[in-house]
Amino acid sequence: MSRKKIQLDEEEIPKEWYNILPDLPEPLPPLINPQTKEPVRPEDLEAVFAKELIRQEVSSERWIPIPEEVREIYRMWRPTPLYRAYGLEKALNTPARIYYKWEGVSPPGSHKPNTAIAQAYYNLKEGTRRLTTETGAGQWGSALAFACAMFDLKCTVYMVKASYYQKPYRKTMMQVWNAEVIPSPSTRTEAGRKILERDPKCPGSLGISISEAVNDAVTHEDTKYTLGSVVNHVLLHQTVIGLELQKQFQQIDEYPDIMFGCVGGGSSFSGFSYPFLREKMHGEKKELRAVAVEPAACPTLTKGPYRYDHGDSARLIPLVKMYTLGHDFVPEPIHAGGLRYHGDAPILSLLVHKGVMEAKAYLQNEVFQAAVLFTKTEGIIPAPEPSYAIKAVVDEALECKRKGEEKVLAFNLCGHGHFDMSAYDAYFERKLPDYSYPEEKIKQSIKKLEELYPWLK
Ligand SMILES: Cc1ncc(COP(=O)(O)O)c(C=O)c1O
Asked: Do 50 and 25 belong together in one domain?
């Protein structure tokens, strides 16, 4: 009988994370301190992050043990199931075999707790009492609130003001887990006050919320900052997804031809694909393709330059080399809040730059059309973010049909859309603007960046 759902036992939750750093085609460019123009030393980050996370950030060990306490909590929802999308295949009448890894089964509803749990654990061990972070759509904030509740830590979340009012139930969810949720920009931090002086009605952005959360952490003794994407240690923790997926594909004697995932900062797609990209880079699976999918309204990988920039608007975070639209770039309010980030993970950026990964961009109406088709045929309501990957998969499956090719397509269904009904509503009411490629805005913010740091490319 053909399998709908491929599952693993709890004992098969990976015991180590996979660190891609030693396998990269070339070393990752260092973080640069804009004042000294010198590379940032790991110790310089200690005011912000837990020491163990900094060690992982720069580690050259390929395998990093997952603490037993972290695996214990992973057991609540891991291993996550791999599904064969028979319903979608039938609707598309495609010879392609489509699979998706379902990360929406975690308590907050996405892949984000894979790293939130690890970060909360290391911070607790090092004596931190409170964690701060930013959140856009609310998925990451919910994950950290949940993780802090599991380890009895305090949690302060700076939520982009526009989302705070648009998504009241994400906010309430965080509060149920005992987190303090602050609409950002706020008067709580120096960074927030400066922005409000200039623009009292500012709706906020991820870059601004990051500035506030960092500012709060560095001005309080017992407090550290956490990030939900972009940095190396977050991508590392997410590799539990791809490591499980390898075992699941082995179980059914399949191997993907093309892997798809949405990319905001890049953590879910990195975690999903890096264990496979290792095999590609080692020459064992040369033909494997990995396609990162992003919104045309925030086209970092497809239209941004690969250059140094800050990860946040207030320029508190050092300069990192990545694909960027400029730290001043504020994207239009598309519903995939998690994909509205001006930059991308440095590792993922390097892999795209070197041609190991590819990138594609779509408009939100075509994405929701694919999401609705997926829901009708597979039952699950996806979050707006992974719906971008679904659109790319649908296109590829139709291409397989045209060419009569039996390719294996795999994508990361990294979250459910239960708190995103307003987005589906807008789609049905034909009220979703498409917000196409913002060429002029990108040119301006990159020009500003070049003027600010003429010495850096
Ligand atoms: C469900 C979901 N998917 C994807 C993303 C994008 O982040 P990343 O690219 O780090 O996975 C987010 C971010 O908030 C998210 O909530």
From this structure: yes
pLDDT value, residue 1: 62
Number of domains in the chain: 2
Give 264 Cα–ligand 1 centroid separation in angstroms: 6
Atom of ligand 1 nearest to the CA of 234: 10
Whether 96 and 186 share a structural domain: no
Q: Tell me which residue range forms the domain holding 306.
A: 5-12+70-109+238-452
- Which position has the token pair 């701060």? 132
219 and 252 co-located in one domain: no
Confidence of residue 188 (pLDDT cuts 50, 70, 90): very high
Q: Which atom of ligand 1 is nearest to the CA of 110?
A: 1
- Among protein residues, the one with the nearest Cα to ligand 1's atom 5 is 338
**Among protein residues, the one whose CA lies closest to atom 10 of ligand 1:** 267
Nearest CA to ligand 1 atom 16: 139
pLDDT at 58: 95
Neighbours of 69 (CB within 10 A): 15
The pLDDT of residue 256 is above 90: yes
Q: Say if 457 falls within a structural domain.
A: no
Q: Judge if 254 and 379 occupy the same domain.
A: yes
Q: Which of 98, 82, 99 is nearest to 5 (CA)?
A: 82
CA-atom Rg of the chain in angstroms: 21
Atom of ligand 1 nearest to the CA of 229: 10
Domain shared by 149 and 250, yes or no: no
**Two structure tokens written together for 177:** 């887990």
CA distance 448 to 443: 9
Residues 408 and 280 in one domain: yes
Assess whether 310 and 402 both reside in one domain.
yes
Ligand 1-lining residues (CB < 6 angstroms): 110, 136-137, 139-140, 229, 262-268, 338-339, 383, 385-386, 414-415
Residue of 106, 226, 262 to test ligand 1 pocket, by largest number of atoms within 8 Å of CB: 262
* 322: pLDDT strictly greater than 90: yes
Same domain, 374 and 314: yes
Residue 439 alpha carbon to ligand 1 centre in Å = 24
Q: Name the pLDDT band for 166 (thresholds 50, 70, 90).
A: confident
Parallel, antiparallel, or unpaired: how do β-strands 16-18 and 63-65 relate? antiparallel
Secondary structure tally for the chain: helices H, strands E: 18, 15
Distances from the Cα of 371 to the Cαs of 363, 368, 383, in angstroms?
13, 5, 9
Q: Output the CA 130–ligand 1 centroid distance in Å.
A: 23
| pTM, entire model | 0.97
Cα separation, 390 vs 374, whole angstroms: 8
For ligand 1, what atom is nearest to the CA of residue 136?
A: 14
CATH number reported for the structural domain that contains residue 317 in this entry: 3.40.50.1100
